[in-house]
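Box 3.1. Reading complex inputs
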Amino acid sequence: MAEHTYAVIMAGGGGTRLWPVSRKETPKQLLPLLGEETLFQSTVSRLEALFPPERILVVTVAEQASVMQEQVPAIPPENYLIEPAPRGTASVVALAAAVLKRRDPQAVMAIQTADHHILNKDLFNYLISTAIAVAEKKYLVTLGITPTFPSTGYGYIQQGDSLGGDYKYPVYTVKSFKEKPDEATAQLLLQSGDHSWNSGMFVWRVDTILAEIERQMPDLFNSVNEIATAWETPERNEVLRSRWNGLKSQTIDYGIMEKAERVAVLPAGGLGWSDVGSWDSLFEVLLPDMNGNVATNKQYHLALDTHNTLVYSATDERLVVTIGLDDMVVVDAGDVLMICKTDQSQRVRDVVEHLKKHKQEKYL
Amino acid sequence: MAEHTYAVIMAGGGGTRLWPVSRKETPKQLLPLLGEETLFQSTVSRLEALFPPERILVVTVAEQASVMQEQVPAIPPENYLIEPAPRGTASVVALAAAVLKRRDPQAVMAIQTADHHILNKDLFNYLISTAIAVAEKKYLVTLGITPTFPSTGYGYIQQGDSLGGDYKYPVYTVKSFKEKPDEATAQLLLQSGDHSWNSGMFVWRVDTILAEIERQMPDLFNSVNEIATAWETPERNEVLRSRWNGLKSQTIDYGIMEKAERVAVLPAGGLGWSDVGSWDSLFEVLLPDMNGNVATNKQYHLALDTHNTLVYSATDERLVVTIGLDDMVVVDAGDVLMICKTDQSQRVRDVVEHLKKHKQEKYL
């Protein structure tokens, strides 16, 4: 079976949630945020234990594809599927499934995002292996993340009964998908014990997901089939462009998963998963010293009476001295210096909005 | 009388108390810490209301003299007295007095330091005029600063009886000079009501101070007289160097003032005086916005939920974003970034010591 398994990395996103380090032109998956490797490189490394590079596909935009090919030369060029424009994750999944089905009708695909971080790689492999086994039984499998706080930033998956079967990891049917809740609801979902965060990681056979797409989004199904038919012909770009532009933008969760049949969930605790969506969540997955501090450029950080502080430094020889700091994030990023109380790091969004509004795009 | 009054600016000091902006090579008097002018330039501007540039003398070291001449071209080159090496303020005062006495035996000299800040220039002029009138009566006059907190960083002057006389400002005899106190003593001195900080500003006739020097430090008296005799001859440098090197280093306070006769003090409140000896004392003399913030580069500071914070920026187009900061000093100085809780800004000394000890002199 293993030779029919593929990983599909979704890597189209831009975004400035980790501004001022991530910028319009350099989204966070292309940056070495957590060490030597970029998030994209770590994503590939993590997958390589299960998938050889020739069975890893990447769906991205043209501007990012060339940088990615430099960062991970092992993935063959034909495995990069280029989106002409963003049309949501439903379109990405459908395109990848349709193209893959023509290459290998028995393919099982594991959908990953390029810009998440996972600490526990062994558990990850264990989960993906189990998810592949479940997907073989024509289930749409989602990886859930056991919530650690009442987040309003993620969708939730409610688990139902155990799926039974002889799997290496507990698997449940899915009772419902829930969109990002308000705070009170998030608190209830956290306490319920049967809800996981929707991580955006899915595993399924290409024929299973395409059947669901045909049932729920027939226009999308027809478009990606036409594109896939033209894929290995000289008409590929023309067909791709014309059909893709006609698609409406839709997420896989809302467009497919919420009303899908035969959905299963593997709720994972202890994965050390983070979507690295803000400075405080980045901070959580870094290993602090005995004072709770993290410095990306340790030999250039001089800390006096400083605790629980992240010093993220993009400049090599610049000395950063902190005296009397608690619970702060310091980001020294070339033309921008940001100093932020950790629990206010979500307000980076406000700063980005402010800069847009005041025509200071050069900092974005 | 006015044509016999001179200002003598002592400007020899180096120092890193405002590190990382002030460095070994660029002491704080040469830096525009508080606006467009450097502290040295402000010192001269402040004095110019009473002293024309040809009656302002500067005692400094060779390395600083050329920068000062560029900063204030109005002061004639012959008014720069160059110390071959640091020998304390007693030596500086004695040299200036001896040289000046040969130029003008009736001279009254007002000793100033180049690196202090005074907000209330009108009151300053008022005090100096009064001090000159008192000095004419052969008093050694000191300007005291009414304490605003129990500082352990300054010496104190205890006032005695009113001097009487028809002066424009109250003048007192001096009962005693006290060296830098410990905290408990500083508290008592603050509460006493009859103690001022020793500001290092003095006014006296050159013959009065030279007579005191002759009485208390005869070696110094003889040396500076020999230097002054050679001053306008080709032997100046040779005599200066040989006599100066033989001097022992001594402060004017300890060497002369503590045991001097006929000492008077003008205790000044409301002068807005600061020795700008640390980041928090610099902060005190800057005008904050409605949130208590000061940014030296206002249009490049974006502040969200930030209060009582100083952003001192040496880089022009670098955007500094602060989110959720209270009572902080941020100093963005080229190769060093320092972020410091304001009430811990004295610990800059520890940082400087650390850098010396760890052979990181390039940052000093």
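In summary: Chain A touches chain B at residues 20, 302, 304-305, 317-325, 328, 330, 332, 335-341, 343-345, 347-348, 350-351, 354-355, 360, 363 (CB under 8 Å).
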